[in-house]
Amino acid sequence: MLAPALAIFIAYRLAPLFWNMVLSVQHWSMFQAPTFAGLYHYRELFLYDDTLRQSFENTLIYLASSPIAIAIAFALALLLDRPLRARGLYRAIFFISYPVMTVVVAVIWQWLFHEKVGLVNHVLLSTGIVGKPLHFLQDDQLALGAVIVASMWQVIGLYMIILLTGLQSIPATLKQAAASDGAGPWQRFRHITLPLMRPSIFLCVVVAIVNSFAAFDLVYVMTDGGPGHASEMMITYIYDVAFSLGRFDYAAALTIFNFAFFMMLAWFANRMAGGDAGGGDGR
Amino acid sequence: MSEPILLLASGRRWLRSLALSFLVTICACSSDSAAPPTTLYVLTFNMPHMEAEFSLWAKEFRRLHPGFDVQQIDRKGSNWAAYYHTQVIAGTAPDIIDTQGAIWLQYASQGGLLDLSRYLERDRDFTNQFYPELIESWRYGGKNYGVPLYFTKTLLFYNKQMFKEAGLTQPPRSFAELMSHARKLAGTGRYGFMTLNFDWLYWPLFAMNDIRLVTPDCKRAAFNTPAARMLIEELAAATAEGIISPTSWTGRWVEPNGMFAAGNVGMFNAHSTALLWIMSNAQWVNEGSVGFAQMPGDWSVPNAHALHISASTRYPEQAWDFIKIVTQGSGALAFGKKLNSPTGNRVVNAQLREYFAQTNPMVLDVLGTQFEYLDRMVANWPLARDTEIKHAFYPEIQSAILGNKSAADALASAERKVNHILSRPGGIPEDCG
After folding, report:
1. Which residues of B touch A (CB under 8 A)?
2. Does CATH place domain B40-152+304-372 in 3.40.190.10?
3. B76-101 tens-digit pLDDT
4. CATH of span B154-301+383-423
5. Domain boundaries, chain B
6. Most buried of A21, A135, A264, B181, CB within 10 angstroms?
7. What value of ipTM does the predicted structure carry?
8. Nearest neighbour of B110 by CB, restricted to A32, A48, A230
């Protein structure tokens, strides 16, 4: 029964990963026979590549913004878990950004951040917060933040649905029992809701990690990693090295580095969530 | 015979008849119809507007080589390399590629392009039509890898009305004068100077301050000097003060051209094809309103296109013939007329001059400047890893000019990266420098 799924997993996941490992220890050019390079590319990666450092830091910043998105989504989920008129409509409105194609989201936010016709600059100027338009996507200090805001806007809907599903799976009797024992709203949230939401929060964290390491289309369309490498992410940098520079061997070494870090993070997140993909009892 | 056996026998007959008729049909088809033409693929660099001209070239090619066809695949500049690299890896490299700038060096150095020296030597009548300096531009390691398709180099365009209002009568003749002109031209909502930044087009600013990218033997970086530090600090200060447009360092093509077309920029360092873009987007641009001159010191950066043949092509002779159709005679003339740009072919350029004298005197004047001071062309170093060096160098300089890093740090960081790239085996031809 598992064979077809396993075959696909091997063909599309393990085989490319293995091929990347092989490629990363070779001098490989598009037109010449490969030669063994040993750890040459890894040495370059750790000793010379400032862009890697910057794109790695940017990826971590991108990832670090996830708790904010998850917190906002949690607040929305708590609000929409209450008996509310037109609750379904609100849920649909908050979720609608997620199914929108990422490229479309990028174009929408490019316009919103535009220095001449963008809504964001219009609001900032008309409220007197800034004196002249901000070049969000061309500014070294603002470009990454602008991309993160767009990303949060898109993914909050998904987090909200995941968390809402988690909230609805908590038996109402537990809260009622706690209330009758004299537990206040904060205590009920702290000691009942939050622990039981752990699997849902873990799922959001995993989605956030995956999003951070796969944040290609949004960055590519909005800033192309620029200005300079100010909004460069690991994934856009790997693409650039492979396809713009034609250095597939070095890009393979970057991919292995990226993969190793990704695995470490996933393992760490799993440990934090109780050691059984967030669903176990923590033993 | 019983009924089922009769039916079976009859079924077998039908089956035999059917198989026979299939065979007859296949034979008839293969004998009557002609084999489909063999197609040569040509990958062009940001030339979607050349479809009509391409059809003419294809028609001429089919006349010369019946049984062959040619197909254009065009990709935007930003997507061109990704497309080409994936095609090469898939083993389906286009037969002919059109490159811009110095990207071809990487492919030539790795054996991806066909050495055209033999063809250029054999067809002397064809080769002699080209400017020898341009033919030399596509030499790497003693071999020729490209035939020039069109040729442009950078110029300084200036807004005559803004010059008049600032009391300026002549374009600048030195870097100091360039900056003082820029200061006089800048004002509310107006910038004094702007430059294109891709493909080293800003390098005249470095050349006029006597800064070199690499040592004469091309083995080490040579740009981390006090002069470079001073230059970057001056450019950063002028950018921060609004004298130089920040778009110079962040925009690619449409944004800076659009700003000059809007009439708010005094001087613009751009290659001559930018003029075509600007003219098509601004009614006010004509010989009375926009002037042009060589950059101070007559420094310029070439930004030409050339056609190359992939080493993997199975049809090198046919590919060579297609290149000849495009780069000489009526084929090249059609190209030059469409692009308002000189080709690499002297004979064709003489015809283009006559054509522009009647249709567009401003283009004629610009065209006249393109073959002056060819000995002052810079940023055309024969480094196979030019693209990598550009990727390592520019973001550092950009960061310093935009005020996010000190000039000293940016230069030191760029130097370390460039030296590492140069130290990797291969990539520097023996005749470099």
Report:
1. 78, 81-82, 85-86, 88-89, 106-107, 110-112, 246-247, 249-250, 311, 387-388, 391, 395-396, 398-399, 402, 404, 413, 416-417, 420, 425
2. yes
3. 887 899 999 999 999 999 999 999 88
4. 3.40.190.10
5. 1-35, 40-152+304-372, 154-301+383-423
6. B181
7. 0.77
8. A32
**For residues B389 and B370, what is the distance between their CA atoms, to the nearest angstrom?**
27
Instruction: Please report, as a single letter, which amino acid is at residue A261.
Output: F
Cβ–Cβ gap A244/B111 under 8 Å: no
Mean pLDDT of chain A, nearest integer: 86
The model's pTM:
0.79
8 Å CB contact of A244 and B391: yes
Please determine, for residue A282, whether its predicted confidence score (pLDDT) is greater than 50.
no
Domains of chain A: 39-272 (1.10.3720.10)
